[in-house]
Amino acid sequence: MPPCTLYHYGSHSKPIHLRPQQCHFSLLIPCRRGDVSDAWSLLCHMRGSDFSPTQYTLSGLLSCELLSICQGMQLQALSIKSGLFDADAFVGTALLGLFGRHGCLDEAFIAFEDMVHKSLVTWNIMLLILARNGFVGDCQNLFRDLVRTGVALSEGSFVAVLSGLVDPEQDLEYSAMIHGLMTKCGFDGDIALVNCLINVYVKCKAMFSAQRLFQEVPAENVVSWNTIIDALVKSGRPQVALEMFVNMSRRGLVPSQATFVAVIDSCASLKNFVCGESIHAKVIRNGFESDVVVGTALVDFYAKSDNMMCSHKCFNQIEEKNIVSWNALMVGYSNECSSMPIMLLRQMLQLGHLVNEFSFSASLKSSSVLNTRQLHGLLIKMGYESHEYVLSSLVMAYSRNGLIIEALSFVKEVSNSLPLVPSNIIAGIYNRTCQYYETVKFLSLLESPDTVSWNLVISACARSNNYNEVLELFNHMHVAHIQPDNYTFMSILCVCTKLCRLDLGSSLHGLIMKTNLYNWDTYICNALIDMYGKCGNIDSSVKVFEEMTDKNIITWTALITALGLNGYPHEALKRFKNMESFRLKPDALALRAVLSACRYGGLVSEAMEIFKQMGTAYGIQPELDHYHCIVDLLAKRGEIEEAEKIITSMPFPPNANIWRSFLEGSKRQTEKSNCILDAMH
């Protein structure tokens, strides 16, 4: 074969005569540095000199990140024509990588099926392509086929199949099966693979499995700790995340940027300012205070701790600020209702930084009428007027400044049909200002109302005492296949309580259990306890209470009220004492509930003891309702003089209810005395 003559390649201006081996080697040099243009020109020269590329040459070219799909298809045709595609797995595997980079799933699958020779790398790349494009089922089927071939699996095989698992309901069982296969193949000690599996368990919300696997890791690294700490933060367990961070430090592991971001977010969630400052000191010692990700987390933490001076200081220490950093600072200032967000937005624009919808939203949150109108003009100029998130913030800004009509007209201007989120915001404002008719009328214009829209209409009808309409709306919502949420159920349960509809309330309880809200929503459970108690089914009230895992002061108050209403004053007192044993300090409503239970049951001494301890033991000064319970109880028991002493000792004038109870008690006592006198004569 004659030498190949090349012209103007690289820095040469004279013809270059290369032998075949040299020519192939020269082609690989631009491929390795990613210079597709030079590599392609050299290939064209080679083809013009009747040189055929080898599988190494083609695979090198196909592996170039900047190679276009069109060029790749030409190389595929060349490999098929030259027989290199069927010769071994090199060219086909590189071709799969190209298709994967460009998202050409069909082409990748066809090429994979056409390959005569497949290496383990070939299988792994195809698995990864399927997983990254969301074809989890196809990825699992292909992995099964790979296992059946009997080829020894690699770390890449497991990483590829695990990377697509994110669904808690469908993928958890499969993850556990892969875990077993990993152990069988001897990969249970592979730290990178174990980290990947921990991450999958976390995505599938299997925190117990993730923590157990983490504890079994023979030599965990920073990635393992970061994964588990971040998972604890995102699953609502920031305190445990901080404890893990302390354990990590004790083991001598150096935290990374990801570690600090997770624990700073934990401190923000807990509003633990002291702990956050301590971690900030560790950030400085580790030299991360100028890092944009860690610095932004600190900006957000101090902003949520209402310390904008420290937040701004952390912002200034970030060397290369990005749009997230600016937005975090702007959001912090917007919560203070200051003009700083507007000033920061102007500064961003002056420095040539890009702004986004979050920048506008933060600026609009605390803007005055004048600034709102100025921002309105700017966002129109920048093409954000039809962006729903910005539109919602703009509507809120106009409404906050008392310009609801202007907000409404703007919403109608930007769209032929009413946008959903801004419409819900305007309806919510109508609802909060007791304009219930306007709420219902406005939302009736929506073409496709969502759950929030239905909730607002139901709430408006309930607040205007149109209870039958509420029940009809809930039925229409069910027919329209709109999924109710906890706010929906709360509204309907309140209506059931008002109407004393035990049958409907019980049916609603069953529906709540089907939607999985029952097990975790304390507010719904509290509403169920109240509904059953006021509808006379005390057994169901107690059952709901006992099944709850997260009880708050409202929960105990609801149960004590239910027991008192249904004639169980002694049990109500017992539960009140149990509540105190759980270190829950009674509030004014809890004390009123237990006093009411004593009032219904005629327990004078018990009620007086609690009443006298209100200021000293509970730190709560008696209010009108508390005085009414005591006066009514004493009056009904005929202790008029004691009732009169209570009234005269009140620090404020008695209301009509107190006087009514006292006078009715006095009247009964007088009638009783007259009856006794008549009997004596």
From TrEMBL:
GO MF terms, alphabetically ordered: RNA binding
Gene Ontology BP, a term: RNA modification
Pfam families listed in its UniProt record: PPR (PF01535), PPR_2 (PF13041)
PPR repeat positions: 119-153, 221-255, 450-484, 521-555
Keywords: Repeat
InterPro entries attached to this UniProt entry: PPR_At4g14850-like_plant, PPR_rpt, TPR-like_helical_dom_sf
Name this polypeptide is given: Pentatricopeptide repeat-containing protein At3g58590 isoform X2
